[in-house]
Specification:
The protein has 136 residues and is mostly helical. It has a domain of 90 residues. The chain is built from 7 helices and no strands. The longest helix is centred in the last third of the chain and has 14 residues.
């Protein structure tokens, strides 16, 4: 399968067709797409949550009213290559990292399935990255 060179590989993963629908929904309905804020306002430089939220307050305010906030956050958590930077779903990087660690710890096998998906191979024994198919 040939990959597009304009997007990170995990955006076009054949294992996650539902992500294409999420990405399309976010792209069409996200309030951040109007460009009213300078791009730097979406990328706080502070590491601590409190300082980063203060730096990105205007961006977070836009996210609070966004109709696709949940889908945006889900994309950022699923695709960490893009989700580890900036404001996604109203959360700063440190908040999303903590949430992602919780999710990975709560889902046995998910970290392995995510690793295999990024390498372009199906995680045959987990079924997690394969949609609704069972393990096998």
């Amino acid at each position: 399968m040939r990959r597009r060179t304009t997007a990170p590989p995990d955006w076009e993963s054949p294992l996650q067709p539902w992500d294409r629908a999420l990405r399309a929904e976010v792209a069409l309905k996200a309030l951040c797409a109007d460009g009213t804020l300078h791009p730097d306002e979406w990328f706080p430089v502070s590491i601590t949550v409190k300082a980063a939220r203060r730096e990105a307050a205007r961006a977070i305010a836009i996210c609070t009213a966004c109709p696709v906030r949940g889908a945006c956050l889900e994309l950022a958590l699923r695709h960490w290559t893009i989700g580890q930077h900036g404001v996604w779903g109203g959360l700063v990087p440190a908040e999303r990292a903590a949430l992602r660690r919780q999710r990975l710890a709560a889902a046995p096998g998910y970290d392995f399935a995510l690793f295999m998906a990024r390498r372009g191979r199906p995680a045959a024994s987990s079924g997690i990255e394969q949609g609704t198919r069972g393990a096998g």
